[in-house]
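Hello,

Our lab assistant flagged a job as stuck in the queue for most of the afternoon. It eventually completed. Since we weren't sure the result was trustworthy after the delay, we are filing this so someone can double-check. Below is the sequence as submitted and the structure that was eventually returned. Let us know if re-running is recommended.
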Amino acid sequence: MSQQMLRVDTQPDLRRRETRSRLKLFSGGGNPQLAREIAEALDEPLAELTIFRYADGEVGVRIEESVRGEDVFVIQPTCPPVNENLFELLIILDALRRASADRITAVLPYFGYARQDRKMKPREPISAKLVANLLTAAGAERILAVDLHAGQLWGFFDIPLDHLPSRMTLADYFARKNLENLVVVSPDVGGVPRAREFAKQLGAPIAIIDKRRDKPNQVKEVVHVIGKVYRRTAIIVDDIIDTAGTLTMGAQALHKRGVGAVYACATHAILSGPAIQRLGASRIEELVVTNTIPLAPEKLIDKITVLSVAPLMAEAIRRIHEDRSVSELLER
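-- returned structure --
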């Protein structure tokens, strides 16, 4: 009787990394400065890509070098103008797929439509799920995102998703300021998990602002502040600042309750409409944001400090390319 020997490969991951195709980085038009910083941190050039508009306004894309068999990463936040940047990303993904790239990862520093993640009323769409489907259909095989608005968004994707919270970058900045008697404040109940993780980094307690909202981007009134804030230095922590109504009203409520000073931080600074005017007139000492969304020069007022997430994203891209754990990067 013949016997079959089962041969066990003890180093499959090493061999796969040795044969992994070359890493290539592409940048869309959404945030080319961040893409350049990521490329510099990886010591890799940005690959050649031409984006143009036809006479009727349609988006055109041309990949200017071979990507056959390559491990490709496309860096493109779907920030305002959201639809322009989103459709540009979809077309780039399609072009790369048709050019026979080995693996395509969509790198989303900011994921537009993330706040449309549920049906609030009958006959409303779940736009975030639609966008997830579009990215997959266009050719994305993996997603790398920074601070998704809600945990359920992970389940909207049928492909692997790596999630990078920016709390380490932001918390490290505040730790270096050596602020005393801190309290970390969540601007709403939904943001409590985010505030708790941030407070853990700083070794501070948390408080919560209870608010009522009549319509999107409108806060009717601050109802209550839950937690001890009197004579403390407060840091309001959020993921997105859009019109800054929630933030500035929260800061006002904290001052009424005896807070000594109010700082704020957020990952994604959209700062649309009256946001800059509101921030300028508010009693917020400093607003710290990241560069997931590019800020126009007129929005860079003295109160705003911008931190780069390029080192964090570059290391995540390196780990994905080398088939190493991304979660280990976040263990602190």
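-- support follow-up --
The delay was a queue issue, not a problem with the job. The result is valid. The chain has nine helices and 14 strands. The first strand starts at residue 23 and ends at 27.
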